[in-house]
Amino acid sequence: MTEVVRNEFAAFGAVITEPPEGTEDFEPVAACNWESLLAFMACDTQWRVGVGFGGMIWIGLDYTACDVVFRRRGFADHIWDDVRVMEEAALPILNSGDE
């Protein structure tokens, strides 16, 4: 994250959380979004995938399984909306065929 963007966030009172040590692949995350990111990552094994002659297609998260993850991990219900936004953003990338 550039210093300009960090300052713009700070001007609005947003706190930016630096990723933990050893996770250089992550950009800094706004503190208000950190729990949402953790919930999304906790559901990373709950994707529904279809396989056919055309290859593999990512369908979406298995909401029933994600509910178990949420209850077991103690994520608040309002975080679910954020996870669904991330799911919607991830699907076109997962289905693009790029690796």
- From the spread of the alpha carbons, the general shape counts as globular
Strand order of the largest sheet: 1-2
Extended strand count:
4
Tell me the β content: 15-25%
Terminus-to-terminus distance: 24 Å
Structure, described:
The chain has helices spanning 3-11, 34-42, 63-73, 79-94; strands at residues 16-17, 29-30, 47-52, 55-61. By secondary structure, it is of the alpha+beta class. Strands 1-2 form a two-stranded antiparallel sheet. The relative contact order is 0.13. It contains 4 helices and 4 strands.
What are the SSEs and their pairings?
Elements: H1 3-11, E1 16-17, E2 29-30, H2 34-42, E3 47-52, E4 55-61, H3 63-73, H4 79-94
Helix pairs in contact: 2-4
Give a concise summary.
This protein has 99 residues and is of the alpha+beta class. The protein has helices at 3-11, 34-42, 63-73, 79-94; strands at 16-17, 29-30, 47-52, 55-61. It has a two-stranded antiparallel sheet. The protein has a two-stranded antiparallel sheet with strand order 3-4.
Which key phrases capture this entry?
single chain, 99 residues, alpha+beta, two-stranded antiparallel sheet, 45% helix
